[in-house]
């Protein structure tokens, strides 16, 4: 007597077991490619998505890099399997990745918005990393604080190129006055992953500090966010 088991049945069994293992052990109970599989399940039904998950990790380097990768690069990934339609990052897959990223940002924001950020700097760094660490071009953001140093707004001021962002101190101060902010923290990313400040970064920061000081607004810090690392101008003695 022989029993035929379809590939659909095998895929369903694998999905069930993986979900159960995740629910029992949490993120620590699964590997990065398995976590990607769990996300891909919702977008690609009745297929073994493990090959796509592994190729995505090999292509982009980490789970966070996959989730944050540019749409055009994700769409270019194709996994060909003999006798079956290729596995690709369909619009459904792109939507799932966008949902995961948005959820991560919302969770990070909940830990800092409206709170005194100077007393929870680690949460602030995590929030900044979630926002800009995996961006492909430089992005300059400003965290506006009230007179009690509670975060009242986080705004993207400028988006630049892979290694440069134009910033205008006058516009920065103008926006702070509009929000009635008492202080600011400057934030931008280095897509290269190296958070070492450039001479241009230092010069630009000095100009903003001076412009803000003229209207009695404090610049507490300038954070440069890299991949897994950051630089604080205050810690480096670059802001007095």
Automatic annotation (TrEMBL):
* InterPro entries reported in the protein's UniProt record: MPN, RadC_JAB, UPF0758, UPF0758_CS
Give this protein's Gene Ontology molecular function annotations.
metal ion binding; metallopeptidase activity
Mention any Pfam family matching this sequence: RadC
Instruction: List the keywords (alphabetical).
Output: Hydrolase, Metal-binding, Metalloprotease, Protease, Zinc
MPN domain residues: 117-239
Tree of life domain? Bacteria
Q: Which GO terms describe its biological process?
A: proteolysis
Keyword Metal-binding appears in the UniProt entry: yes
Q: Could you tell me which CDD domains the record lists for this protein?
A: MPN_DUF2466
Q: Where is the signal peptide?
A: none
What the entry lists under PROSITE patterns is as follows: MPN, UPF0758
Q: Which family does it belong to?
A: Belongs to the UPF0758 family.
Can you say what this protein is called? DNA repair protein RadC
Q: Which organism is it from?
A: Parvularcula maris
Q: In the UniProt record, what gene is named as encoding this protein?
A: radC
């Amino acid at each position: 007597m022989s029993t035929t088991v379809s590939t659909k049945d095998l895929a369903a069994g694998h999905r069930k077991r993986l979900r159960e293992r995740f629910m029992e052990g949490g993120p620590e109970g699964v590997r990065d490619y398995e976590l990607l599989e769990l996300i891909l399940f919702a977008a690609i039904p009745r297929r073994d998505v493990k090959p796509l998950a592994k190729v995505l990790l090999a292509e982009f380097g980490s789970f966070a890099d996959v989730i944050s990768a540019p749409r055009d690069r994700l769409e270019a990934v194709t996994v060909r399997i003999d006798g079956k339609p290729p596995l690709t990052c369909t619009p459904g897959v792109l939507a799932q990745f966008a949902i995961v990223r948005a959820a991560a940002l919302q969770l990070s924001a909940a830990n800092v918005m409206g709170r005194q950020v100077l007393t929870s700097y680690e949460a602030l760094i995590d929030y900044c990393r979630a926002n800009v660490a995996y961006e492909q071009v430089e992005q300059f953001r400003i965290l506006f604080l009230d007179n009690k140093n509670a975060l009242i707004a986080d705004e993207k001021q400028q988006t630049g190129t892979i290694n440069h962002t134009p910033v205008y101190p006058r516009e920065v101060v103008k926006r702070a006055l509009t929000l009635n902010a008492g202080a600011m923290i400057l934030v931008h990313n280095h897509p290269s992953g190296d958070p070492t400040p450039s001479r241009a970064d230092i010069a630009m920061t000095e100009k903003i500090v001076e412009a803000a000081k003229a209207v009695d607004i404090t610049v507490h810090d300038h954070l440069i966010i890299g991949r897994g690392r950051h630089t604080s101008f205050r810690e480096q003695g670059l802001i007095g």
